[in-house]
Automatic annotation (TrEMBL):
Subcellular location: Cytoplasm
One Gene Ontology term from the biological process aspect of the record: autophagy
Domain CNH, residue spans: 23-296
GO cellular component, one term: membrane
PANTHER family noted in UniProt: CNH DOMAIN CONTAINING, TRANSFORMING GROWTH FACTOR-BETA RECEPTOR-ASSOCIATED PROTEIN 1
Originating species: Eublepharis macularius
The protein, known as: Transforming growth factor-beta receptor-associated protein 1 isoform X1
CHCR repeats: 563-727
UniProt keyword annotations, A-Z: Cytoplasm, Protein transport, Receptor, Transport
PROSITE patterns xref list: CHCR, CNH
One Pfam match: CNH
Location (main, coarse): cytoplasm
Length: 863
């Protein structure tokens, strides 16, 4: 694909060089700085001064001034010209002899130093000699298969090395100790210092002209077979892909990142970065192509021309304008070595951003996103394409010169709604990714506001996620946009995130009441309850508590019963105030009292009594309806009985008075139990309700945590209630037998046997008697074990005492107390099991004793 990388500008035209002499032809050229030297076929050297001129229209031309024309002593063609500016010398190859002449006046040096027998020669641009006042010259000698190396000084030459090759060399390039040679049938790399050689690839010198050119440190460009320009290092490998040029290439030059090739009809330009041919210039009769310090010069036999490279930035912009993004990026990366680092970084970022917009316009969103990220795009450049997304208060101005050619998204998509929707989905995704990264630093408000607008317009589920997380949406812009798109619930979240909870609640309540329509949440009432439950503004809770309770008592009360735990610990809501509010709402009041009594476990009589009364009133009310025993009645009665059993704080006599006259016999029994009137309670359970299981359960729960004697007392009372009945009902007898058999351990067997009628058989009581015997034997054996352990422990103490009395303790006025470190003044002392001796008063001090035990602890731990 073509790109305009160079333009051809004439430098020395025929008339300037030869006038009317038609037989004079250009044979070679050399350029050093502004000095241009031309060698001709009649033994002449022309010296021109070359000055570049840039016009305001960016047209480059050259001003050429002829400085000198010098005939050599031999009227033969000049074969090669090489300038050695450090020596002020021009090396001239003519008639197989290299002559040294002055660069300015073209006069031979007085000493007449020269090199004879040269077919062609080149300079070593990576010299190994180290002397700045000489140049290293490598020649192909007229001797067969011979290469010679010389040191050329200002007024003398010195041969350094003579190297022999296996075939006749045709062309040579040199780098350090390495020679790249075109032999008759192949290219080779030869280290003239070690003699090591490396074959590269074959070619035929008879079929095509060899090209050997040094293009960089330890790297060469060669004309390979099949019209390939091959790159080779001194190690004999290629680190770049070859370029494809003409089969009949005559010459090659390097102007990074391009390789320029010359054939009989064209000049072709090839990229070293992607190996593509970038430009073709028609150029007939060309036979010389060389590069000199960045200048590429091409010549016919009659004139000299310069290939002027266009600035790389312009080339890149041309490629971008043609939407050739990949080529532009490859060229931009390759330009790194030619541009100062800071300037390159600025330029490259902008190129990436431009490329991103090109890919974006082609709906290549993945590629665009990567380019935007790599180019560190100010994301507002992208947002500004979308009408009305940037806040009205944003100070953003688009980059100048612009990064793209589009006014807005409508122009970019040409009104195509499907494309526009895809672009908006991409922006949503991209903004969501970058909003929490450094890309959004400094303008988070613009990013979040734009994202909110996109979500609202698209009815996207992430709108709520954005608003409930930390965000920087601007209130004024965002509120108007949400209202426009009827996103009232989201608008409430926006108010909340900006600390305007009152406005949020007011709006949500309008939605629940049907004043405005928004179906975002079908459970908005429950959401408001949860919101107020966690709300720290208690005034708002009180303000809207009535509304909540009016709509749903059982759910509305959650604002008081499900407060955060830290608030519960602080008792931020006075229970009495809450109950005053709930008096009009009986269901809520019950729920709240259950919360205080059962969950918070507040130990206040009035709350327990109030809850019991409410349960009782509800039970009595449900019973008065004379309907079937409903589930609600069963549930409420169970709650009442549970509260009466588990709580000890309610006013039992008060509740009992309220129950009297009703058929709530179980509740009466529980209340009598709380009043320690167990005989009345058991009478109700046994003779009124005839619920023997409940009677046994009564004895169990009433004796919890009150000891075995109390428990036995209750069970004996229950047994007496069975046995002392005025009517010897069979079911009471069986209940008594079952009681004895199932609770044998809870009775005093000897006392029970005295109470039982003589008519009861042993077989009837076999389970009870077996259990009683087992319990008695178990108790006796446990007592014997405890006694034995006590005796053993006592014996151990006695043994320890005897052992301690057996040790002698020597006390003198030199012995020190281990606690206070002072001597003993009286024979009284305390001795620890580890042998430490202390004063009696030191041992008596508890703190000191603690320290002593810490420092002088013994295995037994006793004194």
């Amino acid at each position: 694909m073509s790109v305009k990388a160079f333009k051809l500008v004439p430098a020395v035209e025929r008339e300037m060089l030869m006038g009317e002499k038609t037989r004079i032809n250009i044979e070679c050229i050399e350029c050093c700085g502004k000095n241009l030297y031309i060698g001709t076929n009649d033994g002449s050297i022309y010296h021109f001064l070359l000055e570049e001129r840039n016009s305001p229209s960016e047209k480059t031309s050259f001003s050429v001034t002829k400085q000198l024309h010098k005939y050599l002593s031999v009227r033969k063609a000049v074969g090669e010209l090489k300038a050695a500016s450090a020596l002020n010398r021009l090396l001239v190859l003519c008639d197989s002899t290299i002559t040294l002449v002055n660069m300015m006046n073209l006069e031979p040096i007085p000493t007449g130093a020269r090199i004879k027998g040269a077919v062609t020669f080149t300079l070593n641009e990576n010299p190994v000699n180290g002397d700045p006042f000489c140049v290293e010259v490598c020649i192909v000698s007229v001797k067969r298969r011979t290469i010679q190396l010389f040191l050329v000084y200002e007024d003398r030459v010195q041969i350094v090395k003579e190297v022999f090759t296996q075939e006749q060399p045709c062309a040579v390039a040199v780098d350090g100790h390495y020679l790249c040679l075109a032999l008759t049938t192949q290219y080779i790399i030869l280290n003239y210092n070690t003699g090591a050689s490396q074959d590269l690839f074959p070619y035929s010198s008879e079929e095509r002209r060899p090209i050997v050119k040094r293009i960089g440190r330890e790297e060469f460009l060669l004309a390979g077979p099949g019209g390939l320009g091959m790159f080779a290092t001194v190690d004999g490998i290629s680190q770049r892909a070859p370029v494809h040029w003409s089969e009949n290439v005559i010459g090659a030059a390097l102007c990074f990142p391009y390789v320029v090739a010359l054939d009989e009809e064209f000049i072709t330009v090839h990229s070293m970065l992607d190996q593509q041919q970038k430009q073709t210039l028609a150029f007939k009769d060309g036979h010389i192509l060389q590069d000199f310090e960045g200048k590429v010069i091409v010549a016919t036999s009659k004139g000299v021309y310069i290939l002027v490279p266009l600035p790389l930035e312009r080339q890149i912009q041309d490629l971008l304008a043609s939407h050739r993004v990949e080529e532009a990026l490859v060229l931009a990366k390759g330009a790194r070595r030619n541009i100062p680092k800071e300037k390159f970084q600025v330029m490259y970022k902008r190129i990436l951003q431009q490329a991103g917009f090109i890919q974006f316009a082609q709906l290549q969103f993945l590629e665009a996103k990567e380019l935007f990220r790599s180019g560190q795009l100010d994301v507002r450049e992208l947002i500004s394409l979308y009408p009305f997304l940037l806040p009205a208060s944003s100070s953003f101005m688009r980059s100048h010169p612009p990064l793209h050619e589009y006014a807005d998204l409508n122009q970019l998509t040409q009104g195509d709604h499907e494309k526009m929707a895809k672009c908006k989905r991409f922006l949503m995704s991209y903004l969501n990714e970058v909003r929490s990264t450094d890309v959004a630093n400094g303008y988070k408000e613009d990013v979040d506001t734009a994202l909110l607008k996109l979500y609202a317009e698209a009815n996207h589920e992430s709108l709520l996620d954005l608003l409930v997380s930390e965000n920087f949406c601007l209130l004024t812009d965002s509120a108007a946009w949400l209202e426009k798109h009827k996103k009232y619930f989201a608008l409430g979240l926006l108010y909340h995130s900006n600390g305007q909870d009152a406005a949020a609640l007011q709006l949500w309540i309008k939605i629940v009441n049907g004043d405005v329509q928004d179906s975002t949440r079908t459970d908005l009432y429950e959401y408001i309850v949860d919101f107020l439950t966690s709300c720290s503004d208690h005034e708002l809770v009180w303000k809207y508590a009535e509304w909540l309770l009016q709509r749903n008592e059982e759910i509305g009360v959650h604002v008081f019963t499900r407060r955060p735990q830290e608030e519960e610990q602080e008792n931020s809501f006075n229970p009495d105030d809450v109950m005053s509010c709930l008096n009009k709402y009986p269901k809520s009041l019950v729920k709240y009292l259950e919360f205080l009594v059962l969950e918070r476990r507040i130990q206040k009589e009035k709350y327990h009594t109030h809850l019991a009364v409410l349960y009782l009133e509800k039970v009595l009310h449900l019973k008065s309806l004379e309907t079937e025993r409903s589930e609600e009645l069963v549930d409420t009665q169970a709650k009442l009985q549970s509260l009466l059993r588990k709580s000890d704080l309610y006013r039992a006599y008060f509740i009992l008075d309220k129950i009297s006259g009703s058929d709530l016999h179980m509740e009466c029994a529980i209340l009598y139990g709380k009043l320690e009137e167990h005989d009345k309670a058991l009478h109700i359970l046994v003779h009124v309700l005839k619920d023997f299981a409940a009677a046994e359960d009564y004895c169990v729960w009433n004796s919890e945590n009150k000891g075995i004697p109390y428990r036995r007392k209750l069970f004996h009372m229950l047994l007496m209630a069975y046995l002392n009945s005025s009517s010897a009902e069979r079911e009471l007898v069986m209940a008594a037998v079952d009681l004895l058999n199932s609770h044998a351990a809870d009775f005093d067997a000897a006392l029970v046997l005295q109470l039982l009628p003589d008519s009861w058989s042993v077989q009837l009581l076999s389970s009870f008697l077996t259990g009683a015997m087992r319990e008695s034997i178990h108790a006796q054996r446990m007592s014997q074990i405890a006694l034995g352990l006590a005796k053993t422990e006592n014996l151990i103490y006695k043994h320890e005492k005897v052992k301690l009395k057996g040790h002698t303790t020597v006390l003198s006025d030199r012995k020190l107390c281990q606690v206070c470190q002072t001597p003993f003044c009286e024979p009284a002392f305390v001795r620890y099991p580890n042998g430490s001796v202390v004063h009696t008063h030191c041992a008596a001090n508890r703190l000191v004793t603690s320290n002593t035990n810490h420092h002088f602890s013994s295995s037994s731990g006793r004194t």
